Amino acid sequence: MRIAFLGAGGTMGLPMARNLARAGFEVRGWNRSPDKAEPLADDGGEVVETAADAVAGADVVVTMLSDVEAVAEAVADARLDRAADGAVWIQMSTVGLDGIEQLATLADEHGIAFVDAPVLGTKDPAERGALVILGSGPGEVRDRLGPIFDAVGQKTLWVGEAGAASRLKVVINAWIVAVVEGAAETVALAEAVGVDPNLFLEAIEGGPLDLPYLRMKAGMMIDRDFQPSFRLALAAKDARLAVEAAERHGASLPALAAIRRRLEEGAERHGDEDMAATYLTSAGAKAGQPGS
User: Fold this and answer.
1) Strand spans (E) along 131-283
2) Which among 160, 180, 200 is the end of a domain?
3) Apex CA 146: angle with CA 79 and CA 39, to 5°?
């Protein structure tokens, strides 16, 4: 099966494309910055110069890019009409409700089957092929895509027709940003009042308030280690998409709106650091060094 992977040099896209190549698929990868996709060649994939080169004759087109604008631009350059007859477009980027509708319209205009399949996970699970795939799209293509999803993920959850997966992803992302911002403000409060934040983690350990993701992100904040597994700029985008979805459907979510503002504020200075760097906005000058 020939796979065109658009976004093959991203934090998520590169390991996903490499896992597909390792699984034996013929992968042609394109990335706006080609040098970032070069490691794909180490696993037998081919890095091509243009999105159109990647898509020509492809049985499956995968898009894994930062936002709907990047996806739409790549698809316009790719000329989906050059894909093989019966090709499928798997859209795996997180683009929100309006975005997925826009891309589904593009797919319809090009006469290509469209699967909405955002993922849960960050850099490490992407490298390990341990993502969770949220799939939605035509039932008749699902069996064909099983081996592809198995190569990049540990679990695939089919949730309905195209668009349903993006709605679920927006809901999950609302919870993720709430956990991370809650951790940031809790750690900042602990340090402000002279409490070792490690005592907070010890106090909740093993109980109903404990959460592995909270423990991981709080640990990064305590250690001042913001090496990106998921960039703060992308977390701010995800929060915005969730707020927009709520507004579109008449839900009043003031806490989520406040989280969006805080993440966007942090992204102005720390957008390329891990989303845990939102802690720095709450701690301000008191952030200091680890253990302060």
Assistant:
1) 131-135, 153-158
2) 160
3) 60
Residues 142 and 109 in one domain: yes
CA distance 185 to 187: 6
CA 140 to chain centre: 26
Question: Which of 120, 140, 160 is the last residue in one of the domains?
Answer: 160
Query: How many folded domains does the chain comprise?
Result: 2
pLDDT in tens, 103-118: 999 999 999 999 999 9
Catalytic one of 123, 169, 217, 237 = 169
Is the same domain home to 90 and 180?
no
Closest Cα partner for 19 from 192, 149, 175?
149
* Helices first, then strands: H and E counts in the chain: 13, 9
Using one digit for the tens of pLDDT, what is the confidence trace for 268-278?
Answer: 999 999 999 99
Range of the domain at 257: 166-287
Known catalytic membership, residue 169: yes
